[in-house]
Amino acid sequence: NAGVTQTPKFQVLKTGQSMTLQCAQDMNHEYMSWYRQDPGMGLRLIHYSVGAGITDQGEVPNGYNVSRSTTEDFPLRLLSAAPSQTSVYFCASRSGTSGTYEQYFGPGTRLTVT
Amino acid sequence: KQEVTQIPAALSVPEGENLVLNCSFTDSAIYNLQWFRQDPGKGLTSLLLIQSSQREQTSGRLNASLDKSSGRSTLYIAASQPGDSATYLCAVGPLTTDSWGKLQFGAGTQVVVTP
């Protein structure tokens, strides 16, 4: 199993540009989520999904969109990039039926908005 | 709202010394607590997960304890090695049914083990 994969690893955008961060998992996990990590602030939840076709907002959703058309994929869209969105983005997944609910993280996408 | 705190923010120890990392949380209604390791520029690697009904979990040189009533977890790393140098994050999974395991993270403790 590849686990949780993310592309790209690095991205530089100009203010106002849009892009999609890709996330895929091959563990048949129902639950997927996106976090952003900023220095001194820990990881904060952006959006999450409990299954195909179901998404909801986390702690910091503004400026981001998500959709979940398949169990495997959970892309994160930046509609109009802003310098405040410069961050490292992590995708995570976990089983919705396993009792431990252990979460697995991807390697991250480092995004710089100029 | 759940607040997760990790103190100290940074720690430097000589090789061979035992590491003690602290995590505190304000709301004891948790489903589980997970400890992660993060190397510079890398993703998060899960180290240990403790269910709310458990008091501790062990894996090799790592031992994590959980005291829900006092809102504390401690990660012990025995006989530290330079390869243990990393940032250690704790994350709490809330109990409420509408939370679906949304993790609340601490800011992490950056550990340096000197040879």
Walk me through this protein's architecture.
The complex is a heterodimer of chains A (114) and B (115). Chain A is an all-beta fold and 114 residues long. Chain A has strands spanning 4-7, 10-13, 19-25, 31-38, 42-51, 54-57, 64-66, 76-78, 87-94, 104-105, 109-113. In chain A, strands 2, 4, 5, 6, 9, 10 and 11 form a seven-stranded mixed sheet that branches. In chain A, strands 1-3-8-7 form a four-stranded antiparallel sheet, with no helix packed on it. With 115 residues, chain B is an all-beta fold. Chain B has no helices and eleven strands. Chain B is globular. At the A-B interface, β4, β5, β9 and β10 of A face β4, β5 and β9 of B.
Write the layout of secondary structure elements.
The complex is a heterodimer of chains A (114) and B (115).
Chain A: E1 4-7, E2 10-13, E3 19-25, E4 31-38, E5 42-51, E6 54-57, E7 64-66, E8 76-78, E9 87-94, E10 104-105, E11 109-113
Parallel strand pairs in A: 2-11
Antiparallel strand pairs in A: 1-3, 3-8, 4-5, 4-9, 5-6, 7-8, 9-10, 9-11
Chain B: E1 4-7, E2 10-14, E3 19-25, E4 30-38, E5 44-51, E6 56-59, E7 62-67, E8 72-77, E9 86-94, E10 104-105, E11 109-114
Parallel strand pairs in B: 2-11
Antiparallel strand pairs in B: 1-3, 3-8, 4-5, 4-9, 6-7, 7-8, 9-10, 9-11
Please name the defining characteristics of this protein:
heterodimer, A: 114 residues, 7-stranded mixed beta sheet, 4-stranded antiparallel beta sheet, B: 115 residues, mainly beta, 6-stranded mixed beta sheet
